[in-house]
Amino acid sequence: MKVEDVLKKARTQMGPNCKSCPICNGRACGNTMPGPGAKGTGTVAIHNYDAWQNIELNMDTLCENVEADTTFSLFGKTFQYPIFAGPVGHVELHYGDKYDDQVYNHILVRGCHQAGIAAFTGDGMNADTMKVACQSIKENEGIGIPTIKPWNEQVYLEKLEMVKEAGAFAVAMDVDAAGLPFLKGIVPPAGRKTEKELQAIIEKTPMPFIVKGIMTVKGAYKAWRAGASAIVVSNHGGRVLDGCAPTAEVLPEIVRAIDGRIPILVDGGIRTGVDVFRALALGADGVLIARPFVNMVYGAQEEGIQALVDKLGSELKDTMEMCGAKDLQSIHKDMIRLK
Question: Which residues are in the FMN hydroxy acid dehydrogenase domain (predicted)?
Fold first, then answer.
């Protein structure tokens, strides 16, 4: 099955807000929320996508004629590609009631594991969301990354027990979710974290801790000093703050500042294997892709996930071979140019 076929089927399965566009660039959904759109003007998701297209490739075929190696390792686990499915929450609200979060995460974790990558799973107000996600990760040899919302320390530690029981190889917190409406004013409180508060949480976490939602050098330093094992450069797909810079634009300065101290992942508008290559050439170690995986699940479940992973992987490998990169470590900023 091809991605185009899955998208065609997904259009009959989604709710009214997502159009299952051939190119998921934020233009059709705009600021549709509930739905897959972005906050306010809806332009941040569009700018995320466009920023990757402003990076051109430097073709170089005067190089060793070997098959490119796309394998990627993180925290002792090896994956077929440097690609993760990003966390998505409240799918029944934003994408249609064919699935709820529990079923969606179950399909996503299993499908990604089968395809040789890993999924970040979402979190929400329903306690069963994290519970079922962790059960699915346990059933798939711990290959999955539960993403816990920025709850207070007490609630975080309660959810962490489920993560530990699942044997997950890492855990994440999407600190950018502090801008989501449902987290504002709840009891116990959730939302923004000081560096000291984040450090207290990380010190109680026995597995690698990933901080998602970093958009500045200052934020990257805070996460690193607090003990983060990795960070994700992310503006939450434009869903929490209108007017944010595209992730592709802030990524290079964060890479320079962190200087290899911890792995850096990035998301936001990455849609092809060429985009994955662009991100790695800018210095990222890996990428997250979220919205397209929703369409794959709604259209064909695990088969859809496999179709997308195969497409992304094939595009990445082809780009590496045409630009002279024999493995991920060989991808360098000299292989790209900015328009």
Answer: 37-339
